[in-house]
Design brief:
402 residues; Beta-lactamase; five-stranded antiparallel sheet; 12 helices
Length: 402
């Protein structure tokens, strides 16, 4: 006796249609954006993390600066929103002052002044020499993808560094060089870097054209500390140099930065500060696995934190070589970034670019990306690795649809 099939009713047809439609959106959505996307992807997810629309969601692309969202998320999970970077001070028998940093990204002039005032309050008003200890980092090389331009976005990282390793210089029409900001005094490094520049204000990174980053960072930090020391009426009989803290030196003060990690993350996300993002990236590894900081420790710590947060399968779609998005060897997928954004939603207020809340851009030559949250609260990612920058038009179309 031959078997018979039950009659096919309208409910089954509807179910089949929904299944087939569920298999189509990636192709259909890619086609509907073909006039704007030649090599790229996008995705939109609702507040519960469910994907609403996707094109090439599992393909890998260069992330550029949107990777800073991943760096911030990993750091907030590993270190905690109220984590504060520290700087330690020591005195040896010859009354030399040693300053040992831990990669504080916000060791700015105002913070240095607070440190000097705190040292004076502890009775330390006379020293011989100032030495900068750079032993907090043991990097095999500088930031992957870092250029040698004078632009601030190419500033090198260092364990002890001030003012984002950038110098704000004013040059007058007679060629005189000085500080372009009231909180930072005139320093010898400004004269060296400003000679020959045209009149005007120039913010330069300390390694314009290339340099030994640790030594140049130490020089800048020491000059600023010395100037602030003298401004407070304190005495320094000698000069400055680079030297690790000797065993016999005694600790005299540990400074906790006035900004916590959430404030630091807000700053490097909103202003896309590569230097600060990588200082935080390196701190993740150093705090997790011990100082000195290395790129390997940082990569392992960040990857582990993201795997714990979004799951190992999703985290496997992220290849993060450094924390700012300078490296073209880093890779992300739309699917993984949507998972990142879902986990990052409690910190969505930290994103605010060009007065548009909830947005982070990422730009390199031939890379034009956006990630964040639409005005209606959906998470979105746009990854364009192409010469045409159509990301704003892609976002406009997505927001109209979703």
């Amino acid at each position: 006796m031959k078997g018979t099939l039950p009659p096919i009713g309208p409910g089954f047809c509807l179910l089949l249609a929904l299944v087939l439609l569920g298999r189509q959106p990636a192709v259909a959505d890619c086609r509907s954006f073909s006039d704007l996307i030649g090599n790229g992807a996008f995705g939109v997810a609702d507040r519960e993390g469910q994907t609403l629309s996707s094109c090439n969601g599992d393909r890998s692309y260069v992330p550029a600066s949107i990777i800073k969202i991943s760096t911030a998320l990993a750091a907030l999970r590993l270190l905690g929103p109220d984590y504060r970077f520290t700087t330690e001070f020591f005195i040896d028998r010859e009354r030399n002052l040693y300053i040992r940093g831990t990669g504080d990204p916000f060791l700015v002039s105002e913070e240095v002044e607070r440190m000097v005032i705190a040292l004076r309050a502890r009775g330390l008003d006379r020293i011989n020499n100032i030495f900068i200890d750079q032993g907090g980092y043991a990097l095999a090389g500088q930031v992957p993808g870092l250029g040698v331009s004078g632009n601030p976005y190419d500033a090198p990282v260092a364990a002890t560094a001030v003012n984002f390793n950038t110098v704000n210089i004013a040059v007058d029409h007679e060629g005189r060089v000085g500080s372009a900001e009231p909180q930072t005094p005139d320093l010898p490094i400004m004269e060296d870097m400003g000679t020959g520049l045209p009149p005007g204000v120039h913010r330069l990174n300390i390694c314009r054209g290339g340099c030994a980053a640790e030594e140049r960072s130490a020089r800048y930090a020491a000059e600023l500390f010395l100037a602030k020391w003298l401004e407070q009426g304190m005495i320094c009989a000698g000069q400055y140099g680079v030297r690790n803290v000797p065993d016999q030196a005694q600790p005299v003060y540990t400074h906790h930065n006035s900004r916590n990690l959430e404030e630091v993350a807000a700053s490097f996300l909103r202003f896309s500060n590569n230097y600060a993002a990588n200082q935080v990236f390196l701190a993740c590894g150093a705090v997790k696995y011990g100082y000195p900081a290395t790129w390997a420790k940082a990569g392992k710590a960040v990857a582990g934190a993201l795997a714990d947060t979004i799951g190992p399968q999703a985290a496997a779609q992220l290849e993060i070589e450094e924390g700012a998005g300078l490296s073209r060897r880093s890779r992300v997928t739309v699917a993984a970034m949507l998972d990142i954004l879902h986990a990052f939603r409690p910190y969505a207020h930290l994103l605010n670019e060009n007065n548009r809340p909830g947005i982070k851009s990422g730009t390199l030559n031939g890379v034009y990306n956006l990630a964040g949250y639409t005005r209606t609260g959906n998470a979105f990612v746009i990854l364009l690795n192409q010469q045409e920058n159509s990301r704003d038009r892609v976002l406009q179309r997505l927001e109209k649809r979703w």
